């Protein structure tokens, strides 16, 4: 049996609530800088949220922004930044051999809600409904907007996988490269969630929406006073290449994808199943041929919900409890929950650890919940370690979908 090609990350483009390039984002994380603030929302007023501040017109004309979607603008910005970061001479490559694979939580809610709000100002007269509505709300729109912007004629689609979607976008891109379907993959995840009031209203009705007098303190995984999710937008798209192709052009390699897994809880619409989550982690380890003790960083999915954080910690304790070289952290404490972009942004926050051997901290843990007290949990200050060779990234989503990704520190 032929060995599958090795897949590496050669470029990163992102926008997060606390940064728009990898260096800025990482530096703000190590400095303990939160990006969580507030946003005014239809019907609900001012709410705590993580909002991005990038130059929408850096890669788009005003007409394109008006016609497209917020998720599309985030995707276009991140894809262009990823290509630039990878130092790819994009004008010289075969665009039919480029694939775009973007994970999303949901798409179309922002546009639909806004259109309904707009026509409500005119007695619900549908003549005021935008004729751009249909292309804005089809499920492939964000990925399709990237192909329009960059002239890509290879395959594009979005992968709807709730909050596990970012990892799954990367997994799909890696698999398509291994199958030889494309020669370059733009893969990751995006979220436009803060621009829809519905997600805030739903979490609030579930008792799962974060509240705090200080927005920067609202996202607090593992803290005894955590009270819910901070809804955030953002995006992170990677350039993925086969290792041989990356070496031929002397590309900088951020890491190698060596293990991944996706499974389903099949138990509840909302409540997670830690047993199935653990099975997903173990499956990824098995695929990579690794033991728990080989993993140096586990980036948790923990969203600051009372029960969800405890369940994930119980699962991690069972698998990594006897792994003295495994350190645990959480990136949502800085940026909130970026939904479809969560996995990719959280991975990006940890990838520089391969070079600086710093495990970034979880902030806002003022009073650690005893039920979340797990070995080597890094809180409030970064932790210097001897080396970082493997990072494992957890992302779990509603309707019981789980994804795990393992990245190796590539060394020749």
Descriptive account of the structure:
It is a single chain. By secondary structure, this protein is an alpha/beta fold. The protein has 2 domains: 7-248, Peroxisomal Thiolase, Chain A, domain 1; 259-408, 3-Layer(aba) Sandwich (Peroxisomal Thiolase, Chain A, domain 1). 33% of the residues lie in helices and 21% in strands. It contains 14 helices and 15 strands. It has a 10-stranded mixed beta sheet, with helices on both faces. A 3-stranded mixed beta sheet has the order 2-3-7, covered by helices on one side. The longest helix is centred in the N-terminal third of the chain and has 16 residues, at 70-85. The two termini are 24 Å apart.
SSE string, helices as H and strands as E: EHEEHHEHHHEHEHEEHEHEHEHHHEEEE
* Main β-sheet description: 10 strands, mixed
CATH names the topology of the largest domain as: Peroxisomal Thiolase, Chain A, domain 1
CATH class of the largest domain: Alpha Beta
Count every beta strand, where a strand is a DSSP E run of 2 or more residues.
15
The fourth-level CATH homologous superfamily of the largest domain is Thiolase/Chalcone synthase
CATH 2nd-level architecture of the largest domain: 3-Layer(aba) Sandwich
* Count of separate DSSP helical elements: 14
Poorly predicted runs are none
Percent strand equals 15-25%
The tally of domains stands at 2
Distance between the termini: 24 Å
- What is the helical fraction, as a range of percent? 25-40%
Tell me the overall shape.
globular
Strand order of the largest sheet: 5-4-6-8-1-9-15-14-10-11
What do the pLDDT scores average to? 97
What is the structural class?
alpha/beta
Task: Using the CA coordinates, give the radius of gyration.
Answer: 20 Å
């Amino acid at each position: 049996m032929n060995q599958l090609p090795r897949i590496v990350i050669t470029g990163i483009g992102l926008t997060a609530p606390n940064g728009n390039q990898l260096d800025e984002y990482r530096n703000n994380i190590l400095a303990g800088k939160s990006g969580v603030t507030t946003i005014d929302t239809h019907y609900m007023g001012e709410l705590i949220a993580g909002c991005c501040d990038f130059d929408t017109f850096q890669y788009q004309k005003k007409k394109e922004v008006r016609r497209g979607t917020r998720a599309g603008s985030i995707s276009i910005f991140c894809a262009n930044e990823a290509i630039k970061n990878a130092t790819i001479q994009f004008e010289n490559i075969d665009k039919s051999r480029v694939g775009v694979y973007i994970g999303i939580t949901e798409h179309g809610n922002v546009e639909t809600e806004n259109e309904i709000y707009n026509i409500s100002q005119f007695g619900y007269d549908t003549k005021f409904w935008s004729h751009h509505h249909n292309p804005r709300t089809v499920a492939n729109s964000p990925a399709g907007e990237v192909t329009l912007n960059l002239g890509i004629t290879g395959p594009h689609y979005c992968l709807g996988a709730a909050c596990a979607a970012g990892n799954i976008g990367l997994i799909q891109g890696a698999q398509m490269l291994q199958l030889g379907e494309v020669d370059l993959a733009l893969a990751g995840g995006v979220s436009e969630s803060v621009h829809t009031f519905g997600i805030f209203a739903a979490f609030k009705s579930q008792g799962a929406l974060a509240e705090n007098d200080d927005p920067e303190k609202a996202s607090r995984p593992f803290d005894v006073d955590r009270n819910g999710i901070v809804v955030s937008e953002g995006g992170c798209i990677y350039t993925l290449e086969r290792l041989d192709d990356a070496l031929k052009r002397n590309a900088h390699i951020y890491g190698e994808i060596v293990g991944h897994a996706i499974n389903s809880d099949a138990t509840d619409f909302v409540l997670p199943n830690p047993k199935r989550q653990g099975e997903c982690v173990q499956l990824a380890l098995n695929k990579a041929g690794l033991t728990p003790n080989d993993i140096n960083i586990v980036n948790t999915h923990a969203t600051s919900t009372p029960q969800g954080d405890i369940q994930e910690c119980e699962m991690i304790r069972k698998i990594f409890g006897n792994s003295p070289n495994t350190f645990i952290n959480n990136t949502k404490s800085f940026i909130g929950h970026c939904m479809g972009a969560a996995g990719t942004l959280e991975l990006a926050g940890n990838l520089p650890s391969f070079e600086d051997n710093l495990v970034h901290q979880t902030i806002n843990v003022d009073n650690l919940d005893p039920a979340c007290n797990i070995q080597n949990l890094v809180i409030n200050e970064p932790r210097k370690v001897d080396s970082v060779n493997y990072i494992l990234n957890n992302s779990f989503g509603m309707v019981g979908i789980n994804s795990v990704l393992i990245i190796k520190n590539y060394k020749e």
